[in-house]
Amino acid sequence: MDTRLKNNSDRKGLGLFVSVLLLALLATAVLFFYKPIVQNAKGFLEISQTNREKDMENLKESEESNFLECLFQGNYILKWDLERQKSNKKFGSSDVYLNNIDSIANLNDENDENTDDDYDNFKNDFASLMDDWYYQFYYGTLSKFQLEYYIKDNTTDTHLTNTGSDLSAFLSEGEKAENMKKQYYFYAVLQFDKDGNLNIPYFHGVSKSSKDTFLSLNLTEEMVNRSWNNAAWYASRVKKLSDMTVVYAVKSESFLQNDYQQQMGYLSSQMINDAYSRAGAGYLYVISIILVLLLGFILPAIKPLGVGKGIEAKIPLEIWAIGAALTVSFYDEVLLDLIRETVKGDLFTLNGNHIFTEGMSRVVVNIFNVFIWFLIFLCWFAAALSIRELFIKKPAKYLKENTISIRFLFWIGRSLKKGWFYVSSFDMSKKDNKKILLLLGGNMIVMIILCSMWEAGVIGAIIYTGILFYFVNKYKNKITSGYNTITEAAGKLSEGNLEVTIGNAGIFNPLKEQLMRVQQGFRKAVLEETKSQKMKAELITNVSHDLKTPLTAIITYVDLLKNENLSEEQRASYVETLDRKALRLKILIEDLFEMSKAASNTISMNPVELDIAALLKQLQFELSDRVAGAGLDFRVRIPDDKVIAWLDSDKTYRIFENLLINMCKYALQGSRAYLDMEVKGNEVNITVRNISQEELDFTGDEIVERFVRGDKARNSEGSGLGLAIAKSFTELQGGTFQVITDGDLFKVVVTFHLL
């Protein structure tokens, strides 16, 4: 037995050695084809260069046409803005360019079947087109081409411009106009008379063909391209550009070359890669991969080598498929550059640091090339071994043993089968809590695994849970239907569900009648006590939690202080912590007393003539460090004048102190927060707004309840009474306190009556 194991081990070692050796030799052989490929590529590059120059010329003309089309659109946008400036009204594009439906009624042909609805649709479509042009001109064209403009109304001399240069000089003659021409590479003057005829005195910086293209552009054609109506119908409804002069100018000679150069670089890269592929790189890559695949099928057939008998033949399909796909993507991105740079010179310029000689650096580069090709061949060799297994095994067995996804699905199937057997053997007469916990624990593990698969896993988890619930519930109900009818009703009653309907219980119907009478009595009592019991439960839960935390810390640190071996630094640290926790406990108790007094209306109020504006400014100053520590950009808008109301100064200060502290705790760090005061008649509205760092999954009414926090985990310091106290103090002084949530926006509006 030992001899057999040793022979198998020797065979695997020999097979591995032979496989690695052959792949390394093949990777080395590839390097001998580098120079012929580069030599052949030169001829293909010369041919491609001529074609590239033609392509570049076409690209340049296309860029000019695109630029002039932007100018054409700009005419309409600038005219639109000019009309708004003239009338000082916010005209829409339809108000400026469209004839109203009454004025065009006489222009319609008798056979025109277009309706008023057609005109409304056209009007909306036209407005959409102008909005698109507006955005493109102001947020694209001006910055992209560094375009300067000057537009003037010929009748009123009203003008608009975006530059400090006097572009109106292009409209004059003489030395001033000549100096302006010297400053700009491109300039054009477009003059529209009252009938809409266009005159172009200057159009410098683009080819004549592009200029002719500009003259052929018209708005009617643009609209026809957007819909299928006839051009005459549009022409009768759209006003022409008239009574205006537009000057466009660009200083940079390369204003059209950004996209042009980007396209040129892209075409150059494509041209070089194509030339190298045609020169033999593509054939080299394909033939070498074919040879590797043949090795992957031939070597396992030589039984003494023992190739394909180990883990290399069990590599999952998903892994080698990804590796092979990556090697294909490397062809354009890596391999062609590797061939080119290796032949042109030192790939890493190692000899430039005077440590490696030229010969040594060449050796390093060759080793690197062999290593890269070896990794590529290794991926395809593993793929060949795995594909070979598909022919040896049956497809079903191959998928089961050589794919991760199928293995995972089989595992889920086995888990479901075991789970079903577990449920089917459940004994209702025994208290099998341990068995239930184990079942739910296994179910939880399956759900966690499914949910880790993102969207697909979540869908699978939902389906899995639904199927599991259906079969378990069906089987359980079939066995225990009679017994469970009455016990289930009794259990729900004991849990407080007083709305349960009891079905046919067979021999247990007399007990059913008794339960129904008990149900009626409980329902009446519970309805009367629900509100008070809920409040008591919340009080006990929240107060015990919030008081227990600092109290536990105090007890712990008191025990630590009893240790006589403590150093002075440790003792001082513990005392400081005790002081902080005691202060925290004091604040919680004070908040509780304040809320209790406010709820019972026993709190004393001392109203005075209070300047709310001054109070808020004082509060802003006192809490400035805390706001800064929260990382908020705090914007405050408070009137300079006095805002006097009849209020208790201490209670009012507490209202806004609670609001700002709440803002510092829960606002998103780095966001803006606002404090605004606005006087309306005999009322003043104070608004505090911020963006919450946590999702707001509650309403404004819920958050002002006692002991309710935005941090439901109760990890942050606070009693949960801040907003409740603020609301109570506001309403005790005759004001209103409103909390508004919108998405992640948290806003509080406090209103008081003024004197």
Main traits of this protein?
alpha+beta, 5-stranded mixed β-sheet, 22 helices, 10% strand, extended, disordered N terminus
How would you characterize this protein structure?
The chain is α+β, with helices and mostly antiparallel strands and 755 residues long. It has 22 helices and twelve strands. The protein has helices at 2-30, 34-87, 93-97, 116-145, 175-183, 208-216, 219-226, 231-235, 257-298, 317-344, 358-392, 395-402, 404-424, 433-451, 454-494, 509-561, 568-600, 612-622, 624-629, 649-666, 700-703, 722-732, and strands spanning 148-153, 159-161, 186-192, 198-204, 244-250, 607-611, 633-637, 644-648, 672-680, 683-691, 736-742, 745-753. The strands form three sheets. Strands 2-1-5-3-4 form a five-stranded antiparallel beta sheet, with helices on one face. The protein has a five-stranded mixed beta sheet with strand order 7-9-10-12-11. Strands 6-8 form a two-stranded antiparallel sheet. Strand 9 (672-680) and strand 10 (683-691) form a beta hairpin. Residues 1-7 and 105-111 have low confidence and may be disordered.
